[in-house]
Amino acid sequence: MPAPYYVSPEQIMQEKEDFARKGIEKAKEVIVLEYQHGLVMVAENPLATVFKISEIYDRLAIAATGLYPDYEALRVAGIQAAEVKGLTFNREDVTAKWLANQYSQQIGAIYRQPDAKPLEIELLLCEIREDSSSSHRTYHLSFDGTFWEENEYAVIGGRADEITGILDNEYTDGLDLNGAVKFAAKTFETIEAEVDEDDRYEIAADTIEVAILDETRNRRKFRRLPSDEVREILSA
What we know:
The protein is α+β, with helices and mostly antiparallel strands. The protein has six helices and ten strands; from the N terminus they run αββββααββββααββα.
């Protein structure tokens, strides 16, 4: 009887990491910026059939990139978990940190299964502050379940490092909504200019997706900006 084929755990995990990273490298980016009244989320998304940014709960939103079926399943699970916790306990108990831990356990459990394909995703879980005594929260979740908190701005997607370099040099505090959206769009344009002409496309209202968490709104802080409003902002 032949001996069973052996693959070391280290090799399995390395191959999983390589597989997930290759999938994410192909994904278009999402930028989250703090602005005067909260958080603005801007995604490169030329597809009209899917959303990369969505509301989760009163003060929470999710921005995702990678394989759509993978992050869509997590979005739905997050909404369900938040609703149950909010009804069972208190709406204030539904926080980004709590949900980031829930996602971390789910994503990490899949990643650690030897015979399971890792999720080809990156997530940003965003929370608007309750009042001026607290602060906005943005948690960055990786394909292996690890997560960490970002400050002022965050980027996910294949060219995240290049975009982060631009933000490190050019981001300024106190942007209004129009300024934040135009800044994100300009950053995308800079990155697209480095792409081969055959794969390049114009950054416009129809190729980006924009949503905000606005602390001046009532209970539900999330608002998705329609294309007409984005077009007006970019042309101003």
